[in-house]
Amino acid sequence: MPYDVIIIGGGPAGLSAALVLGRARKRVLLCDAGEPRNARAEQIHTFVTRDGTPPAEFRRIGREQLRAYPGVEVRDVRVAALSREGDGFVAAFADGTRAAARRVLLAVGVRDILSDDLPGLRELWGRSVFQCPYCHGWEVQDRRFAYLSPGPEWVRWGVFLTGWSRDVVVLTSGAYAVDDAARDELRRAGVGLDERPLRRLVAEGGELVALEFADGGTLAREVLFARPAQQQTELVQRLGLELDEHGFVRVDALGRTSVAGVFAAGDLTTPVQGALLAAAAGMQAAAGLNHELTVEHALSGDAAPARPPAASRAPGGTGG
């Protein structure tokens, strides 16, 4: 087979895994369809040494660093289908080409389901509407926050947001009842509660300025935090991988899925999401892949991958 691993997804998880596997002298094909989940974000945050880096620049740097490793190939192509053939897998690409590998690493993230039932949500996503305060809270600190809670179990998250602003209002949009204990916690934390059904988000100059409710009333707000439903990509769904109770791909500590030979890393495996976390998961999965492949090569009598020419290798070191 021409490749040891096909990595599907060129974000932080995929780039990190490709780097680890390239340094381990594995033959890797990194496939990137060019639709990053964080495309609407202006900057990546809480990633040490890369805080404030635009997502496109982060990917450019990652790809540039992969060029030092001859075993890593990057293609801007969508994987249309994935099938098992013999002891490995064959990926069929949208451009009509195919490639085979011993293993597959899924790093495709998840899809955020932005409902059109709330006009303005999709347009303001990544500008005034955010999911993660760790990623965006610093930039909007002390502004007027609203938090659209998806269910009664999430209402108390409004108290957590007071770490970034003391002006927080929790919204239920009339979808469920809030119990007395949660109401008391919000009151004690100084967090407001508005249970009226939302009609739309009001924007001026591309920024949120107010919420409009079904009864015609409005509430001035500058920032909305929301937790939209998430869905696995079609490719992941077709593979029939085991999912956990929340709909995320179930993996072990080294990224192995329920399908032998298929690994997964990043946002598709966990609701605790972020660029640095995805990159760390990519490294962990790559370590698991490398261990499996190295042992497999050795026990089968296969020759180890050829070392790159000395002129292309960086000086050795003792650190990771």
TrEMBL record:
> Which keywords has UniProt assigned to this entry?
Flavoprotein, Oxidoreductase
* Record-linked InterPro entries: FAD/NAD-bd_sf, FAD/NAD-binding_dom, Ferredoxin-NADP_redctase_2
Gene3D superfamilies named in the record: FAD/NAD(P)-binding domain
**What is the name listed in the Swiss-Prot or TrEMBL entry for this protein?**
NAD(P)/FAD-dependent oxidoreductase
- Comp. bias intervals (Low complexity): 303-320
Q: Can you tell which superkingdom this protein's organism belongs to? A: Bacteria
* Domain FAD/NAD(P)-binding: start-end pairs: 3-283
What Pfam families would the database entry show?
A: Pyr_redox_2 (PF07992)
Q: Where is this region: Disordered?
A: 300-320
The record's section on PANTHER family has: THIOREDOXIN REDUCTASE 1-RELATED-RELATED
* Coiled coil, from the record: none
